[in-house]
Amino acid sequence: MKIKDTEAKKLVETMAGLRQARYPWWKLWRELADFYLPKRYVWLQSDKERRTREAKNPNILDGTGTTAARVLAAGMMNGITSPSRPWFSLRVPGFTDTPNTAARLWVDEVTRRMLMVMAETNFYNSLAIVYLDLSVFGTAANLIYEDEESVFRCYNPALGEYYLGQSPRLSVDTFAREYTMTVGQVVRQWGIKNVSAAVKNQWERGGASLLSPVEICHLIQPNDDGQSTVNRKFAYRETYWETAVSDGNVLDQSGFNEIPGIFPRWELTANDAYGTSPACDALGDVIQLQHETKRKAQGLDIMMRPPMVADIQLQHRPTAMMPGGITFVAGQNQNAAIRPAYQIQLPLGEITADILDVRARIREIFHNPLFNMISQLDTVRSATEIDARREEKLVLLGSVLERFQNEALDPAINRIFNIMLRSGMLPPAPEEIAGAPLEVQYVSILSTAQRAVAAIPTERWVGLIGNIAALIPEVADIPDWPELVRNYGDAIGVPARDMKTREQIAENAARRAEAAQNEQAMAQMQQAAGGAKLLSETDVGGGSNALQQILGASA
């Protein structure tokens, strides 16, 4: 596929600019990979290291850092996007708050279908990698493409092979990567007509040539500059080309209505395109842990097998250094013996205590106590105390959860919804909500618990009012009780379908007021009838009763 020379030149310049902007992060990522995930991110290694692929992890002697990162990733996976329970719902404001309406039934069905398709693809497997990348490197990428076999499919580029660029709103709108495919993969994906002459020759040669590596450049960017052949109706464009080709021939170029991927960051500083992570904060502790573990092992080794000093007479005589061994020396020479060169008294208790302290700091930085709090309690605690501890620690994850929803979950749901809509997998929307915007509500464990933190002031306020109302009844009139209870239910995650609408509440109040008014009128009528009966039974003499006297007087 041929594109304009000016566009081809800009592609190369864009890639070079993104590469230069990422360079300052390279050393940090390399160190994080060495001490947390050394076997995984080969793109952070040199060419020689990638070729040799050493099987050992020389920098990791204590795996607490790696384990803590995996606990955090697994806890976020289960707490935010658990495959075993619904973690989001859709709503149309003003139309779906009432259950059993056409709009409500439609959004519930759409949510059900989306969750079902997510479970049948590799969506959750790829999200697990995203969480681990975020925990260790602070930056993750997950590409979401339409797929003929499973509706859509996700791909996780490895850190070190991709670059990110931001919009003025500091959201990722540019993604690029340099990666390697085999000749066979390149031809099967883009066809023999679109590949270079070198790749075509290797394909025709066949055999081992099909496994030869081909370096590929991949760029996704906004389609708003008018410099591309891609139709301007698409918000983004994507281009693939062989790195070695610079004549304007590309493998493929296409457009997207929405960016085909998610690129979350853990925490940002200023306008950095890449994020920092808990692993960055714990890196010093992890390095210290490896150092202390190594020195402790060396000290124990010296204590168990100290360097020895032996008489020169024993140089060529067999000696037994193992427990129970016997070394024979001449009896007349008392100096012909073997003894330690020096002895050390290793402060084993202090070293072990410090190692345990460092491990605890690492787990705390990775928020592990939030996810395994109960198993780590030394005594049995009340449910109230456990909830209070959890809510206290959730505050630390509040900004992270909010960013992840904005940068990962919102665009992922939007992308998957549009893919399914274009594939005809969603039911037609009712006419009443045609053109109305959809909103996403997150109902996962962490998001619900996070909202529940906001309900604590309400609980305290209601408790205070209950205590004071016994002395001053007027304070019970201060709260707007229906709205307070509704807001509290929203805060703790009560579904909207389980609460009556404000209109229904108003109708019920009107019916109760009317019923009370009717009861009052009936009581008045009964009271009047009772009075009339009493008057009719009261004899006032002359053969008449009190009621007759009153009626006669009034006549």
Question: How are the SSEs ordered, and which strands pair?
Answer:
Blueprint: H1 5-35, H2 47-52, H3 64-80, E1 88-91, H4 102-120, H5 123-137, E2 142-147, E3 151-155, E4 162-166, E5 172-182, H6 183-190, H7 197-205, E6 213-222, E7 236-242, E8 252-256, E9 261-262, H8 278-304, E10 308-310, E11 338-340, H9 348-365, H10 368-371, H11 383-422, E12 439-442, H12 445-453, H13 456-469, H14 481-491, H15 502-536, E13 539-541, E14 544-545, H16 546-554
Helix pairs in contact: 3-5, 6-7, 8-9, 11-12
Mean pLDDT: 83
What structural class do the secondary elements suggest? alpha+beta
Helix fraction by DSSP (H/I, runs of at least 4): 40-55%
Fraction of residues in β-strands = 5-15%
N→C terminal distance: 111 Å
Biggest sheet character: 5 strands, antiparallel
Report on this model:
It is flat and about 150 Å long. It has 16 helices and 14 strands. The strands form 5 sheets. Strands 4-5-6-7-8 form a 5-stranded antiparallel beta sheet. Strands 3-2-9 form a 3-stranded antiparallel beta sheet. It has a two-stranded antiparallel ribbon with strand order 1-12. Among the domains are: 229 residues, no CATH class; 46 residues, no CATH class; 44 residues. Helix 8 packs antiparallel against helix 9. It is α+β, with helices and mostly antiparallel strands.
